[in-house]
Write a structure and sequence with these properties.
Radius of gyration: 13 Å
Low-confidence stretches: none
Strand content: over 45%
Helix content: 10-25%
Number of strands: 7
Structural class: alpha+beta
Order of helices and strands: EEEHEEEHE
Distance between the termini: 14 Å
Strand order of the largest sheet: 2-3-6-5-4-7
């Protein structure tokens, strides 16, 4: 993790999983150590319900999204356009860079 006064940057990896809820989506769970770091700044950056706005980079693709809390960890949502652009599928392990503006 790197942090300065204006942002927190995290580098992590995780496995892509699929959620079949009312709005089906793909996610990657943020590991416990990084989720702990995010919780330390959550009150300053959340816009409600514990949701955290972030900029994400996987490979050559960067986008803005939100982290969602679930089972004590944060979840990175993966847009279909990102998965297709980077050739990713459920079960793949991906390297992710997260940037949280503080």
């Amino acid at each position: 993790m790197s942090a300065d006064r204006d942002r927190m940057e995290l580098r992590l990896s995780g496995e892509i999983w699929y959620w079949r809820g009312p709005s089906p989506y793909h996610f990657v769970a943020v590991p416990e150590e990084h989720s702990r770091d995010i919780r330390e700044v959550a009150r300053m950056v959340t816009y409600g319900w514990g949701v955290i706005p972030v900029t994400v980079r996987i490979g050559g693709t960067s986008w803005t999204t939100s982290l969602f809390p679930r089972d004590g960890l944060y979840q990175v949502s993966l847009k279909d356009m990102v998965r297709k652009a980077e050739g990713l599928a459920v079960g793949d392990t991906v390297a992710i860079r997260l940037t949280i503006e503080i």
